[in-house]
Amino acid sequence: MKWSIHGNGKTITEGEVVAPDERLHWPQTISIGVQHILAMFGASILVPTLTGFPVTTTLLFTGVATIIFLLMTKNKVPSYLGSSFALIAPVTASTVGDDFSAALGGIVMTGAALFIVGLIVAKTGTRWIHALMPPVVMGTIVALIGLNLASATLAPMRDFPATTFLTVLAVVLSTVAFKGLLGRLSILVGLVIGYLIALVQGQVDFTPVGQAAWLGLPAFHTPSFDFNVALMFLPAVFVLIAENIGHVRTVGLMTGKDLSKFNGRALMADGIGTVVAGVGGGSATTTYAENIGVMAASRVYSTAAYWVAAIAAMALAFLPKFGALINTVPVGVIGGLGIVLYGMIGIVGARLWIEAKVDFGNPINLMTAGTGLIIAIAVTQDLVFGQFQMGGIALGTIATLVVFHLMATVAKLRGTDLTQVDA
Questions:
Q1: Alpha helix locations (H) across 356-387?
Q2: Of 236, 314, 363, 399, which is most buried by a Cβ count within 10 Å?
Q3: What radius of gyration, in Å, describes the C-alpha atoms of the chain?
Q4: Which of these, 240, 289, 245, lies nearest to 90 by C-alpha position?
């Protein structure tokens, strides 16, 4: 909990960065902390908005999870744990009306599984993860999550086409029209512009805002547990693993420090944060690329700024009127943001293939990706197998893992493996 002052505490020397164990003077540190709140804000409030979870409760647990993360990584890995998009599909599928206790149970089980993986990684390293999920598998799992969610945007496109597509236009244009922090906040900018467009069309109801109190506790809910639900949430564990390990590696590269020894701690911390969120009624948490953008632009990697962001986010959770305002975001705006975000999730999977130079001339890779994607896209409602129910994401993930490892094993045994799929 101690940080040394970087330089004169006010400016950063050219070519240097403020390390995680350093900080600027508190006014500058608080300013950076506010930027981190803004960076994670648009995406983090969108997750509960899409799933129907209480916004203020989710915000509270993002702050709690961030503090857990900072403590467990010994204040050496700067990160804000915002709401994870990887769990939107299973949360939506396991929510019935206003009852999302089963979804919370799935979130708790996801966090517990992630914590166990973190324990193993802390002891053995990450080589087994790369063996289980080579780039073709990991890219497919990420892509199929985004593509499976595509059907959720159909109703807004049909019922509120102007609001939906103008929101999409606002997001994509603000991404390239603005520079610096504002450009990285294109989701938040698009939300505001889309909200104004819906307001002009009379699609916003402020009645709940007027009825809400200024100060009050966020709404807490308790989980219930179902094995069928656990199967739906399983694929998200793989995504959270990749996000956390990728975050630690990226921050290490940007600060010039080897942080790989914190991989296990990062996974365990996110696992605990997700369990705590699920127990209380919040969304699952994960590291955020948006906050990496703020660090890259400001050259400030101080964990002190993340303490500021976490505490401020938790304070917002005790403003019911603020939560009620967020809940007035119209369906058309949510649909427009969903089109962009779900599409980005899908393309991130393809980017993993490209960066790893996955060879789709190899039929093992080609069939692995093709099989998983088609199943995930086709299955929009749960299929029943005896006593079990599984959705498209769970089935697609299982198919991806089975097809790859089955084909790779048989190819090696038969000597037909001509393209070194292990690489």
A1: 363-378
A2: 236
A3: 21
A4: 240
For residue 388, what are the β-bridge partners?
385
Whether the Cβ atoms of residue 333 and residue 168 lie closer than 8 Å to each other: no
Query: For the chain, what is the total number of helices (H) and then of strands (E)?
Result: 19, 6
User: Environment class of residue 370 by beta-carbon count within 10 Å: exposed (0-12), middle (13-18) or buried (19+)?
Assistant: middle
More confident residue, 374 or 250: 374
pLDDT value at 419 more than 70:
no
152 to 51, 111, 157, 242, 248: CA distances (angstroms): 11, 25, 10, 25, 32
Contact, 225 vs 109, CB < 8 A? yes
pTM of the predicted structure, to 2 decimals: 0.82
DSSP SS3 for 96: strand
pLDDT digits (tens, 9 = 90+) for 56-85: 999 999 999 999 999 999 999 999 998 888
Number of Cβ within a 10 Å radius of residue 51: 19
Q: Closest by alpha carbon to 383, among 216, 232, 186? A: 232
